[in-house]
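Consider the following input, taken from an annotated entry for Nitrous oxide reductase accessory protein NosL (Sulfurimonas crateris).
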Amino acid sequence: MKDSKVSFFILNFLLLFFISGCNSSGSLSSKDNKEKQKEVCPKCNMELPSSNIYTAKLQSQNKSYGFDDIGCLVLWSQEKNISMYKAEVFTNDTQKYIDASKAYFSFNEKTPMSYGFGAYEIEKENTVKIDEVKLRILRGEHMGNPKIRKQILGY
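Applying the prediction step yields:
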């Protein structure tokens, strides 16, 4: 009788051990899934590209937002009435994030949301500054507009 109580105790202990082991394994996989989740643009809900090309970031109220295209950043900040004071853009030439106010923007590139503005750290011919980019996007004067695209590309 004593052996059956000991066996019962050991069996319950082993069962409890395996059950708790399964639970910890499940929490590891959910942690891995959270790490694998990609950041999405708050404006268009597209995943941000892993290369960062054409992406932009905005710091507001101690929170960082990532955008797949400078056009999304401009429109989203306008909708939310948030200043673009702490905006950064990923540059095509130096491949790093810089202050958007220091960047030069070309306006005829193929970008994720077709706005067409590509950021550069070093000034090149036919580029504009962020104030002009913002104005053009808000007016609809970007590559996503078929009339403007035809005018810029000449076809």
